[in-house]
Write a structure and sequence with these properties.
Elements lengths: L1 H6 L6 H12 L1 H10 L20 H4 L14 E6 L10 E5 H5 L23 E5 L7 H13 L2 E3 L10 H11 L3 E4 L1 H11 L6 H5 L3 E5 L5 H11 L3 E7 L3 E6 L6 E3 L4 E6 L5 E2 L5 E9 L10 E10 L11 E7 L3 E4 L2 E4 H8 L10 E5 L2 E7 L6 H16 L3 E6 L13 E2 L4 E2 L1
Parallel strand pairs: 3-4, 3-5, 5-6, 6-7, 18-19
Antiparallel strand pairs: 1-2, 7-8, 8-9, 10-12, 11-12, 12-13, 13-14, 15-16, 17-18, 20-21
């Protein structure tokens, strides 16, 4: 039996197989590799990926089929990126094997890392992520329902048939175990339900919350946990590549889903550091599981770094820390400031609304603070100005804004007035 086991074990790595697949079946990838003078047989491991050219959204242009590596007749599902950053949308499509064979693999990481998604068959999961256009809601739904065997309640995220009050009604009556949603929608639902109140945990009984798809500082995560009375974990993926990393129970960085994605951190054109002076690079992903529209060395536009230290419980294995997107910066007072660092600092102040926004007026950083019941607006403004001055060393002004109302979509922390739109 050992002989048969060895006989049918794959003789090539997943990285080699996906590179060879794209070279054989996609003109764009083949042309890019040939221009670099690289052939698939040279790529066997993650260390070899640096020989390959990057893929960018600009490379793909506006052609919805630019990534296609299988006949169109075999496709069973297609999605488009939301394009919130003003760039061309990117289309990804799936064949049957992508969806129901490779796509339902459990999220595996390094052997020393505990099981990533701590969800059991028979548990109830509320999925408050968008189901339309983007793949996020459907991908989470399928992996939990078909991959794990748990019961999924498709709440959606504020669409025509999924108004927030309906979502809360279902959550109260069904009494589920876990909630998947974005950080801003988790906040909004909690506020709509009456948070912060001690009985929120008893009313809904959530055991965990999984936050997906938006920037989320640790300070914002802690507010969400206090509101719901449940631990909140971060799940990192992209519409383009699928799952990338998941936090374990220690909430201490992303463990990579190594059977789905190979991840690199590459230098940015201009050196970037976080608030602690740690060097950041751009997250680059290669999909190992999607054969219909794979991505080879795709520049995500996300900033990140590796953390090689042992985890809180002593497990060995590097973790990925994501620091927002390349464009998640504001420039004021001659400094480049990262939105995640500003969010982390301001939200440690209990008077500052989680719905604050930022705007830059010349060298002046403006903080827009919505009115909130029970909060002295002048005290909140004074404390916000003081923190910005002491911690960031830039001039700050605070403007009072109307109370937050739900408008759907992603919450935009930065208002880009020069572009006439929020970002």
């Amino acid at each position: 039996m050992r002989f048969l086991h060895e006989k049918f074990r794959p003789t090539t790595s997943a990285i080699h197989r996906i590179v060879a697949h794209t070279y054989d079946r996609n003109p764009l990838y083949r042309k890019k590799m040939q221009a670099r003078g690289v052939a698939p047989h040279q790529i066997e491991s993650a260390h070899d990926l640096e020989q390959l050219p990057f893929t960018t959204r600009e490379d793909l242009g506006t052609d919805p089929w630019a990534l296609l590596c299988v006949p169109r007749s075999t496709l069973v599902q297609a999605h488009m990126s939301t394009g919130t950053t003003g760039r061309n949308p990117l289309y990804v499509a799936y064949d049957w094997e992508d969806l129901y064979t490779r796509g339902l693999m459990p999220l595996n990481s390094d052997p020393a890392v505990p099981r990533l998604l701590r969800i059991e068959p028979g548990e109830i999961v509320f999925n408050a992520l968008p189901y339309e256009v983007s793949v996020t809601g459907l991908a989470i739904h399928r992996s939990i329902q078909d991959g794990i065997g748990a019961c999924v309640v498709p709440l959606g995220k504020g669409g025509f048939y999924s108004e927030p009050w309906k979502a809360l009604k279902m959550m109260r009556e069904i009494q589920g175990d876990h909630l998947f949603t974005t950080p801003s929608y988790a906040l909004y639902l909690a506020e709509l339900a009456g948070a912060p109140r001690e009985w929120l945990k008893e009313v809904f009984g959530l055991r965990s919350i999984w936050l997906v798809g938006e920037l989320c500082s640790d300070a914002l995560r802690r507010r969400i946990e206090r509101m719901w009375g449940a631990p909140a974990f971060l799940y990192y993926g992209t519409m383009e590549s699928g799952p990338v990393g998941v936090e374990c129970a220690e909430q201490d960085g992303y463990h990579l889903a190594t059977n789905f994605t190979a991840v690199e951190i590459v230098a940015t054109p201009v050196p970037v550091t976080d608030a602690h002076g740690m060097a950041l690079g751009e997250v680059v992903v290669t999909t190992l599981w999607r054969h219909a529209t794979p991505l080879i060395r795709y520049r995500t536009g996300d900033l990140g770094r590796w953390d090689e230290r042992p985890g809180a419980t002593g497990e060995i294995g590097r973790r990925l820390r994501v620091h927002g997107r390349l464009e998640d910066v504001v420039r004021a007072g001659g400094k480049t400031l990262h939105v995640l660092d500003i969010e982390q600092g301001l939200l440690t102040l209990p008077e500052v609304s989680a719905w604050f926004q930022l705007r830059v007026d010349g060298d002046l950083l403006k903080v827009l603070l919505p009115a909130e019941d029970g909060v002295d607006a002048e005290v909140a403004a004074r404390r916000a100005r003081q923190w910005v001055s002491d911690s960031l060393g830039v001039e700050c002004d605070v403007e009072h804004a109307p109370p937050r109302t739900y408008a759907g979509g992603k919450f935009m922390r930065v208002v880009r007035t020069s572009q006439g739109e929020a970002k």
